[in-house]
TrEMBL record:
One of its GO terms (molecular function) is metal ion binding. Residues 1-165 form the ATP-grasp domain. This is Phosphoribosyl aminoimidazole carboxylase. The lineage of its organism: Bacteria, Bacillati, Cyanobacteriota, Cyanophyceae, Nostocales. Keywords: ATP-binding, Decarboxylase, Lyase, Nucleotide-binding, Purine biosynthesis. GO terms for biological process: purine nucleotide biosynthetic process. Pathway: Purine metabolism. It holds the Pfam family PurK_C. InterPro entries: ATP-grasp, ATP-grasp_carboxylate-amine, ATP_grasp_subdomain_1, PurK_C, Rudment_hybrid_motif.
Amino acid sequence: AVESQIENLGFPGVLKARRHGYDGQGTFIIPDFPTLSKIVNQSRTQFLVEEFVPFTKELAIIAARSVNGEIIIYPAVETRQEEQVCRWVIAPAKITQEQNLEIEAIAHKLLTSLQYVGVCGIELFLTAAGKILINEIAPRTHNSGHFSLDACETSQFELHLRAVCGLPLTNTRLRCASAVMGNLLGYESSHSDYQKQRQQLAVFPKLTVHWYGKTEARPGRKLGHITVLLKC
């Protein structure tokens, strides 16, 4: 039973739905047994139970492996989540060279072991002791890599096509010293395209607005993102 599993791990704990989890949906931080029982009893979903990791930073890395076995990696980034939804990404992450090398080694080992083809997002925790832990793996282009559209020589989307088509994997380095990507999240239920707000954002220098063209806004729904290039 879930209750016995989480008792072994202690509180707080983490419940993750086995299926249909996306943008934090189906992920719950469990402080105690009453909260655990309420969620489990109200859902027909099967859950994974995980130990809560008291991290100091959330990190991510985008890596790609081609059908020919070639692997290339983007700079590691720091991400900020609120209510289990990514709010912003800073590239590159402010971590040590040793930590960078460890993350790159993790990506190489993971993609090689799985014989993976295409772009993959890997989310990680950095603990107070400096330990790197894998949190989740996204076998696709990933929100944490959207900065690459404007900030890198090659975007993650082009790189994915190159990987699956057997084309050479081209340069992933940053075109500027750093960049910030911020998600544009819905704050109301609406069918507005928010054109006025997008135009107001677009006047800022070195800022690019990417709008996804969704016809319905809901609180917390990703409607687009912005990228700001720094020290170019």
